């Protein structure tokens, strides 16, 4: 039976998809997972009623979360995905020649099971690649244990639920300091911040914490239909600066790594991805700490 699928980014805002059809629901020990089919974006899944990924537009989010940081690194070999049980981030990371190891630290095995069954386009077989290691459990526990037992990671992707969820403890300066223990000196992390219109204070708070923890923080903005808004993401590093690469250099790196199947990320439009409109800057400015 079809019904409207509605999302509430704030208490006084709503958007959604009419004629959605629920295909599956699982109440796992951690969250409510639902899989839906929609006329607009195809199949998608939600966690506790929040939109996560759809087959119709997942490439926008995953390409932006992976490629700016990965291309800024001259030769990434190891990557850590926190969350990412749908496999979309791992799929994008595998496109980079030279990647030897990807660890996906996902809390909920049911997320992996359901998305593999209902959204195979998102993972694209990434979990079957021998370079990908799936670790089920708390990402914080994995990071704590990996500090002394694993080769440092060149890339870290926060493919997590938002910071006002059970993942809140991972969006903190204390965790960033823990994370640096498993990152190589030239590593970068990427994470999503939220909508500058719906989550202004949250976005600013995340940026403040990142700038307190890392030397170089860059924001990205793009519209994601499933999230109903312009969406902000960020890269953070003590050494890598994605803004320092020209369109020509990015084109050369894409060619050298034989990456030609991207749908959204484009070196010619890269400067626009890294820019923020004046209205967004004005909204955030009231919550950002003054630059030192």
Automatic annotation (TrEMBL):
Coiled-coil ranges per the record?
none
The family database entries (SUPFAM superfamilies) matched by this protein are listed as: S-adenosyl-L-methionine-dependent methyltransferases
A GO biological process of this protein is:
spermidine biosynthetic process
Statement: the UniProt record of this protein carries the keyword Nucleotidyltransferase = no
InterPro entries annotated for this entry?
PABS, SAM-dependent_MTases_sf, Spermi_synthase, Spermidine_synt_N_sf
Q: Which reaction does it catalyse?
A: S-adenosyl 3-(methylsulfanyl)propylamine + putrescine = S-methyl-5'-thioadenosine + spermidine + H(+)
Q: Which Gene3D superfamilies match?
A: Spermidine synthase, tetramerisation domain (2.30.140.10), Vaccinia Virus protein VP39 (3.40.50.150)
Q: List keywords of the entry alphabetically.
A: Polyamine biosynthesis, Spermidine biosynthesis, Transferase
What pathway, per the record? Amine and polyamine biosynthesis; spermidine biosynthesis; spermidine from putrescine: step 1/1
Q: What does this protein do?
A: Catalyzes the irreversible transfer of a propylamine group from the amino donor S-adenosylmethioninamine (decarboxy-AdoMet) to putrescine (1,4-diaminobutane) to yield spermidine.
User: Which HAMAP family does the UniProt entry name for this protein?
Assistant: Spermidine_synth
**The protein's name in its UniProt record:** Polyamine aminopropyltransferase
């Amino acid at each position: 039976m079809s019904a409207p699928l509605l999302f509430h980014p704030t208490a006084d805002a709503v958007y959604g998809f009419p004629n959605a059809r629920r295909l599956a629901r699982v109440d796992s020990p951690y969250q409510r997972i639902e899989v839906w089919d929609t006329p607009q974006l195809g199949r998608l899944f939600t966690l506790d009623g929040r939109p996560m990924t759809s087959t119709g537009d997942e490439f926008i989010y995953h390409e932006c979360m992976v490629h700016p940081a990965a291309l800024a690194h001259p030769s990434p070999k190891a990557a850590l995905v926190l969350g990412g049980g749908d496999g979309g981030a791992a799929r994008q990371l595998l496109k980079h020649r030279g990647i030897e190891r990807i660890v996906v630290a996902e809390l909920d095995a049911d997320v992996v099971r359901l998305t593999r069954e209902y959204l195979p386009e998102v993972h694209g077989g990434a979990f079957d690649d021998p370079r990908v290691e799936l670790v089920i459990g708390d990402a914080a526990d994995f990071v704590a244990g990996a500090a002394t037992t694993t080769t440092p990671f060149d890339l870290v992707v926060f493919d997590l639920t938002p910071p006002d969820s059970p993942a809140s403890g991972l969006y903190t300066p204390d965790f960033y300091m823990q994370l640096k223990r498993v990152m190589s000196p030239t590593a970068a992390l990427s994470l999503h911040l939220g909508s500058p219109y719906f989550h202004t204070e949250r976005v600013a708070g995340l940026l403040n914490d990142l700038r307190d923890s890392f030397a170089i923080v860059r924001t990205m903005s793009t519209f994601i239909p499933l999230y109903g808004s312009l969406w902000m993401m960020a890269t953070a590093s003590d050494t890598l600066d994605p803004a320092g690469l020209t369109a020509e250099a990015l084109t050369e790196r894409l060619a050298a790594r034989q990456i030609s199947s991207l749908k959204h990320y484009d070196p010619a439009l890269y400067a626009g991805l890294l820019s923020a409109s004046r209205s967004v800057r004005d909204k955030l400015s009231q919550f950002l700490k003054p630059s030192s």
